[in-house]
Amino acid sequence: MKTYYITEKSIKISQLSNKEFNKNSLCPRDYRNLINVNQNRITFLDFIISKEVWKEIGSDSYMKKSKYRFLKTVNISENYLLDEARVEYCKPENKVFPKKWDILIVKDWWWNWLWEVWYYNIDNENHYDSLSSWIIKVSLKQEKKFYILWLLKSNHFKTYIDLNTAQGSTIRHSKKISLNYWITLPSINNHEAPEKIEKIVSLIVKNLLDKEEQIKRKNEIIDEKIEKELKDNQKLGKQIYKFHRISEIIKIWRLDTWLFNKKYKEVENLVLNYKNWYLEINKSDIKTWRTPKDYIYPKNSNHKNSYLWLTPKYIKWRQFTSYQYINTKIETNLKEWDLIFTWIWTWSQWHMILYKQKDLWKIYINQNCYAIKSFWNDIINSFVLSFLSSKTNKIIIKYLTSSWSVPAIYPSYIKKIKIPNFEASKHEEIAKEYYNTVEKNTDLNFENYLEREKIRNKELWIFQLSMEIFSLREILEDLVDKIIMDRKIKISFDY
After folding, report:
1. How far apart are the first and last CA of the chain?
2. Residues 392, 228: contact at Cβ < 8 Å?
């Protein structure tokens, strides 16, 4: 993460009482200053139509069986759109409801998420979604909206929040300091036509948003296809739920009641009763690993011993959401096309990605991830990944998980998972939703860029979409850096 600050070598006594959040502080960290060479700036408040914050609803207002959702900081990520993996439901008592196209900014949180921002793109006319008091809801003028959105996702904004928020032992409170941020606009030092820089940033942001929406849609398609195939192709004879015999309990060799309830058996029987039978995972095919003792975090990935460091927080919904590099002399045990997944419930268990070294670099996994050895070909691997990470199988995983102090699933339980033996044509149909290469667009310009990219995004699949999101983020970060530092920018669509 690039930072934008300088630390003063000396300060005046009068400055000790000027710090808004920590008056009379003697900590040098509190006297770092934000770098912003470009002086073509307008305050963020000038673009805001309205802003709202509400109080917390309280534990008594939470309801599992409700249509009203309570959005919290756990629903954010480095992506633009809402993370719906862990949504809480509540009574309809809240008063702050996000509207479509609002920007939501975290104001109170732990270290890594304090400055996160996301874009609310859901119709909420019935007020089914409401917001936590830890979030500021901002409605922006249409002018420069998407340009501003990326600035708020940039490292420059993160540095600004970090510098202007008091350090906390657990939770940091930035209050409404984000609203005082200055929106830096392109200058003639960046380009002879600064408005073109704004426009290209906005177009790339819109492209990113569309890619995220396509990933969400394709994940839903995979889950729907798997569930439909199972339900439409059951063997004759209705499965009836019965209490377990002692012989069955001895076979399972676990007494936790989750494995004997009706919901678990109903979903498990969808696979067991599939007309073409099923496959199993051999325990010997499951790879485990640990954090290497000699690792260091490098400044870049150019070192010969560099690996992409993969922990559970970097995987979400069949995609790679963030990354970190490490250097280590201990070789990875991963091979091309291995399936990587998380197994600790704390980190939202059983999210998976496919290890494609050509696209992902060399990967090293920590002790909270497992890998399954590659199967016969890329189609089978992509299908197996799609099924194992499907909503159907996640129900099975949920009940197989050992509910100790840290809920987790172990290799001895993973081998009990059955993979339905779909026909080859169905393998390919589902696999292509996850991995299928499409050539990049050429001859793009301001007029055709977004339209042609959206058409291509529909043809792209989850893996490629997530990889291109990373690439576009880096391009945007580089553009913002040049805008902030007032450097020359060459306009190009060859991304």
Report:
1. 21
2. no
CB proximity list for 203: less than 8 A, separation 6 or greater: 446, 449, 450
Q: What is the mean pLDDT of the chain?
A: 84
Same domain, 19 and 165: yes
Domain that holds residue 149: 5-184
> Which CATH number characterizes residue 259's domain?
3.90.220.20
Indicate whether 118 pLDDT > 70.
Answer: yes
| Residue 229: inside a domain | no
Alpha helices in 339-423 (DSSP H): 357-360, 378-388, 391-400, 411-414
Q: Is residue 471 part of a domain?
A: no
Whole-prediction pTM: 0.87
For residues 417 and 440, give the distance between their C-alpha atoms in angstroms, rounded to a whole number: 38
| Whether 117 and 257 share a structural domain | no
**The two three-digit tokens of residue 18, written as one number:** 């000027």
Q: Are residues 159 and 283 in the same domain?
A: no
In a shared domain, residues 253 and 376: yes
Q: Of 421, 437, 466, at which residue does a domain stop?
A: 421
**Percent share of the chain, pLDDT over 90:** 36
Same domain, 148 and 247: no
Instruction: Specify the 3-state DSSP secondary structure of 331.
Output: coil
Amino acid at 375: F
46 falls within a domain: yes
pLDDT of residue 112: 62
Q: Coil, strand, or helix at residue 324?
A: strand
The Cα–Cα gap between 284 and 371 comes to 11
| CA dist., res. 175 & res. 134, Å (int) | 9
Is pLDDT of 111 > 60? Answer: no
Considering the domain architecture, whether residues 20 and 145 belong to the same structural domain is answered as yes
Q: pLDDT per residue over 434-448, tens digit each?
A: 887 788 999 999 999
The reply to whether 135 and 253 lie within a common domain is no
Q: Are strands 48-52 and 352-354 parallel, antiparallel or unpaired?
A: unpaired
pLDDT tens, 176-204? 889 999 999 999 999 999 999 999 999 99
Going by C-alpha positions, the residue among 400, 431, 384 that lies closest to residue 280 is 384
Q: Is the pLDDT of residue 168 over 70?
A: no
Q: Say if residues 402 and 413 touch (Cβ distance below 8 Å).
A: yes
Query: In the structure, what pLDDT confidence band is assigned to residue 169 with cuts at 50, 70 and 90?
Result: low
Q: Is the pLDDT of residue 22 over 60?
A: no
SS3 373: coil
Cα 22 from Cα 13, distance rounded (Å): 14
- Helices and strands in the chain, H and E counts: 12, 24
Alpha helices (H) along 233-377: 246-252, 262-272, 357-360
**Angstrom distance (rounded) from CA 179 to CA 160:** 11
348 in any annotated domain: yes
Give the three-state DSSP class for 88: strand
